[in-house]
Amino acid sequence: MNDADDVMLVLTTVADAASAERIARALVEERLAACVTVLGAARSTYRWQGAVESADELPLLLKTTAGRWPALRERLRALHPYEVPEMLAWRAEDGWPGYLDWVRAASTGGG
């Protein structure tokens, strides 16, 4: 295996279920992500354009590989409704080998 095969977990948030479904379906259909998990409602408080704001959001957990991350990042930016979308990514340091193999296969055409 090489670094491009490393499994990654990506976090983003959206404002509504329709955006979550649209993004999840597109990224999985395009094999940029093996899986997108839409979590339950969360309340975010943040500073935006000089003011403290609060909003209800849905967190999305995207599973992909390091090799697919650059294309996923660009596609997610194009699909995302926010001006500055949250996109944080971590390499999976460990995980069940069978699941990691599935993520690799499903995000690159083999699964």
What topology emerges from the helices and strands here?
Blueprint: E1 7-14, H1 17-29, E2 35-38, E3 42-48, E4 51-65, H2 69-79, E5 88-91, H3 97-106
Antiparallel strand pairs: 1-4, 1-5, 2-4, 3-4
As an assembly, this protein is single chain
Mean pLDDT comes to 95
Structural class: alpha+beta
Low-confidence stretches: none
Write structural notes for this entry.
With 111 residues, this protein is an alpha+beta fold. Helices cover 31% and strands 34% of the residues. It has helices at 17-29, 69-79, 97-106; strands at residues 7-14, 35-38, 42-48, 51-65, 88-91. Strands 1, 2, 3, 4 and 5 form a 5-stranded antiparallel beta sheet that branches. A hairpin with a 2-residue loop joins β3 and β4. It is elongated. The two termini are 17 Å apart.
Provide a short characterization of the protein structure:
The chain has helices at residues 17-29, 69-79, 97-106; strands spanning 7-14, 35-38, 42-48, 51-65, 88-91.
